Task: structure prediction
Amino acid sequence: MAEASGKSALQKIMIFVRPFRLQLLVMLLLTALLAVNSMIPPLLTRAIINQVVGNRRTDMLPAIVFLFIVTGALATLMGYLQVVGMAYIGQTFVMRVRTAVYKHMLGLGVAFFGRESTGKLVNRLMGDSSVLQQMLTVTSLQILSDLICAIFAITATFFINWRLAIPLYILAFLFALNYKLNIGSLRRLARSQRSAEDRVASGVQNRLVANLTVKTYGTEEREGGEFQQQSALSLDLAREGQVASSTFWINTWLLRDVGYVVIFFLGCAMVLNGTANYGDVTAFLSYAMLLLWPAVRFSVLAQQLQNVKISAERLFEILDEQPAITNRPGARVVKKIRGQVTLDHVSFEYVPGKPVLNDISLEVEPGESVALVGPTGCGKSTVLSLLMRFYDVTGGAIRIDGIDIRDFDLASLRRHFGIVLQDSLLFTVSIADNIRYARPSASRRQVEFAARIAEIHNEILALPKGYDSVVGDRDVQLSVGQKQRLAIARAILAAPAILIMDEATSSLDTNSEQAIQVAMNRFLLGRTSFIVAHRLSTIRNASKIVLLDKGRIVECGSHDTLMELPGGRYRKLYETHAGAGIIKDEG
Result:
């Protein structure tokens, strides 16, 4: 969205309106015809009063009645086409905006999602995009009709009776003044209320995701109280906004009603004293309403446009966010890799001046397994994130098969990775589709093969619909260990050249882990793997064990090699925790 930089939010959103130019032109033409059509009835009314009634021209009555019927029928037909057409345009417009924002969010880096709440992003994606539809409704198109009507009405009223037109013009000025005095507070309160809704959505998302923690510590009442406080703040702002909006609308309707009454009685007075005839005053009042109603509708539209502007600004805060990690010009699409990985004096810092990794160098040959060991915060997970280029190194380079990963096309690079994290995320689709997520074209036989390796096949068959059971359904409640094994099956089916496992077997019992380990050893033949684990049984089988501390490599080698180092850090660590079989955090 770089082309939109420096423009206002409403100007930026016009990028999404451009594809509908032809349809909107047809709708505008239809609106103009409706406006012209609405000019005819007052003239017909005037003719009936002045000619048919006043001058006894009864021969004109059939034609006038026919014209009344025709104009009414045309207004109904064109109104229907306008409503249906604008509904289609508006809904398609919202879908395209929503899709563009969602796709843009998917392209943003890990740092963005670490900074922004999921609840807030969902609230903007669904809520603010829906508000944008207000700019493509019959009401917004009505501004053209209203403009035509207002110009015609101003001209017609002046020529019918210029003295009676003066208070009408003063009334139009008061409408504009009412808008000017109220729109500032309406805009401020609307923006504040939207921000409060973001906080409520973020809070709900956090509490629902962490529901197990909430229940474990029995904090339901406290969390409910915090939700109530956040909701109350949002409600207070909504009430303030409603009061301000009501004040604006009371003034608008009061001006319209009082103004019409004043003009009506002034017209009656002119008829009584002979300075105007009854037909002229009746036509004048009809045209006065063609000016007053547009003033009311403009007030509606003006408030809607303020809401649209706020929503557009909030959406473009996301669309203007630039991905931290992008393809270099001429990035290479990699179709096959051997899996040789080199960390060449790699340094990294999330916050400038606070290094997380310091001058790390490591050579990994294709097919080797590397276990990363060390206390919390030593940089294990950071190394894994850098390998998949979720972040870029701040010093040195990471190479795969001798090529800097920054020279690879991002999507093609990551397709060669498989990843299993400590917290397994499954989608609300069938178990088969969860496993084949990285390979949608995989056959059922391939899916079942991956599930067998992950030691989950028999448990899937025991479910009501087997592989077609939908995760999250009432009858499909998976344990943490089962979810973990499904995630492992997904990584296996992807057949990656490099596999990353961050505490992948932490949720499994010892027997399950041993069974999976045997199968994984077969699967990993010829594949490079990086493993973060605390279980000694997993660590000791690695080709290389890398002990990290404070962002530096302290020791590196095989289990046997490191155990031979007298006074070695890994040896001490292993001997200390050998009884438990799990390395506990030294920190």
